[in-house]
Design goal:
The chain has about 475 residues and is α/β, with parallel strands linked by helices. About 30% of the residues lie in helices and about 25% in strands. The chain has helices spanning about 1-15, 65-75, 120-125, 125-135, 165, 260-275, 305-315, 315-330, 335-350, 375-385, 390-395, 455-470; strands spanning about 35-45, 50, 85-95, 100-105, 140, 145-150, 185-190, 200-205, 210-220, 225-230, 235-245, 250-255, 280, 285, 295-300, 420-425, 430-435, 440-450. Strands 3, 4, 5, 6, 13, 14 and 15 form a seven-stranded mixed beta sheet that branches. Strand 16 (about 420-425) and strand 17 form a beta hairpin. The longest helix has 16 residues, at about 1-15. The two termini are about 30 Å apart.
């Protein structure tokens, strides 16, 4: 502790004397002894480069990668863009009997927010409205199947580079033509009083038909959720391991839904039954578009609204779905490969420096992503001068107030001043955004650190930015 405090004091003294020499001073800190780091800053008004003394290294960005994706999505799709999910039917309705000799069809529109917990009120009652409309059309019995048209999205949901420890957990949920409940499900546990005893699974929400959970979770005296779910997309056999706190009657662990489109359709089937509409067939996915008579469409909130929880809460699913829409708009192909090409080509045409830019997803969850801070700063500068400036920057966390910065920079001059996207994964921390310095200068910056040792990196980076605020 004393050594850490001495370092902070030493760093601040050096920084005041050599403010323009950048991050060299922190290399003496044990936390950063083996680390790679890079920092870049400009004056947001004049464009003057303020800080480029550290070499522009291509580093793993973690979730600041979402800045690249959301900025491009706003520019390409527009802030009023909406996803659309549709329901209808194919075949003929026998008016006398109410029998549909055909299928009910849900056409997935790649809406990441469909029944999302971040837009609960917006989607509340959607399935009920659909079922009521089907009933009003005269259908009482479906002599066919409930088809899920997933043709709008390729059937491989996980980007390259996502690791096995991530993809079974809620934050590693993949894309889907028909997303549902953030493509996650809740495992509700109860844990005993003593440490080291087996925790029991009470139920899951929503219910996942066919799910087999191998439960190896035990109780712990710690207060943290240290459980992990292992499972692959479309696999209904999953394993949950680790620990949860002792003496909990309802402790929730969130996991990635094996097949969100099917889970959504099964939930809709239950709503149909509650309205007295019997499905004789099965829930099935189809990968080729099917002609059907449209009954209702449900549009998502506008893109300007979607990017708020995306950037504030760092939602990987939302970012990955937006990346695919970039591919659809730019390349007429929502595959991952074409989407990344479309993203890269867009920023190339805007004359953004992409040296060292190696994207493999849109969210930053992959450790195969690489980017230089200069690229992030140039994208932020582009957005700061564009027509969507306010929409974009308002979506970013505000230091000490909201999102992933809610508890950061408290009591410092950057509280309620700094707007920035954070990035965090094992041995990776990143921060990129804008603030007004002590001298009234608006500064756009990006800072990435890889392969640091131990804990305390957040405090080191906060101290650095506060010092930078004071000296510019």
């Amino acid at each position: 502790m004393k050594r850490s405090l001495l370092f902070i004091l030493f760093f601040n003294i050096l920084f005041c004397s050599y403010a323009q020499k950048g991050l060299y001073a922190i290399s003496s800190n044990k936390i950063l002894r083996t680390a790679s780091y890079s920092f870049y800053a400009i004056d947001a008004v004049t464009g003057e480069v303020l800080q480029n003394s550290t070499s522009q290294k291509s580093l793993v960005p973690a979730s600041v990668m979402k800045l690249v994706t959301t900025a491009a999505a706003l520019e390409i799709l527009g802030p009023q863009f909406r996803f659309k999910t549709a329901v209808g039917y194919s075949g003929e309705i026998e008016k006398e009997t109410g029998v549909l000799k055909g299928d009910v069809v849900i056409k997935g529109g790649c809406d990441p927010a469909f029944y999302s917990r971040y837009f609960t009120d917006y989607y509340k009652g959607t399935f009920e409205d659909w079922a009521e409309t089907i009933r009003e059309s005269g259908i009482r019995r479906i002599h066919g199947d409930l088809l899920i048209d997933i043709s709008a999205m390729e059937n491989f949901p996980i980007p390259g580079g996502w690791i096995w420890e991530d993809i079974g957990n809620y934050y590693g949920a993949g894309v889907s033509a028909l997303s549902y409940f953030d493509n996650l499900y809740e495992i509700h546990f109860s844990s005993p009083f003593g440490e080291g005893h087996s925790a029991e699974i009470a139920y899951t929400n929503p219910v996942i038909e066919g799910l087999e959970l191998d439960n190896k979770v035990v109780s712990s005296n710690g207060n943290m959720d240290l459980s992990c779910v292992f499972g692959a997309p479309y696999s209904y056999k999953q394993e949950v391991v680790g620990t949860i706190p002792v003496n909990r009657s309802d402790f929730v662990v969130k996991a990635a839904t094996p097949d969100p489109a099917v889970t959504a359709a099964v939930s809709f089937r239950e709503i149909l039954a509650s309205k007295g509409i019997l499905l004789e067939g099965k829930v099935k996915k189809i990968t080729k578009p099917k002609q059907f008579d449209l009954l209702l469409e449900k549009s998502s909130p506008e893109l300007s609204q979607l990017i708020v929880p995306l950037n504030q809460k760092s939602l990987n699913l939302f970012a990955e779905q937006l990346l695919r829409e970039i591919g659809r708009a730019q390349k007429k192909d929502p595959s991952l490969k074409s989407s990344i090409e479309g993203l890269t080509e867009f920023w190339e045409k805007k004359n953004i420096n992409l040296e060292g830019f190696y994207p493999t997803d849109g969210s930053g969850l992959s450790r195969s992503n690489n980017i230089c801070p200069r690229t992030l700063v140039e994208i932020l500068n582009y957005m700061n001068k564009g027509e969507y400036r306010e929409i974009f920057f308002d979506s970013l966390p505000l230091a000490g107030v909201s999102g992933t910065l809610e508890y950061s920079f408290k009591g410092t001059p950057l509280e309620k001043n700094l707007r920035a996207k954070t990035g965090s994964m094992k041995r990776v921390r990143s921060l990129a955004g804008m603030f007004t310095s002590l001298k009234g200068r608006k500064i756009i910056f990006a800072l990435i650190v890889n392969n640091f040792e131990g804990n305390g990196i957040g405090k080191v980076l906060e101290d650095f930015l506060v010092s930078y605020y004071k000296n510019n």
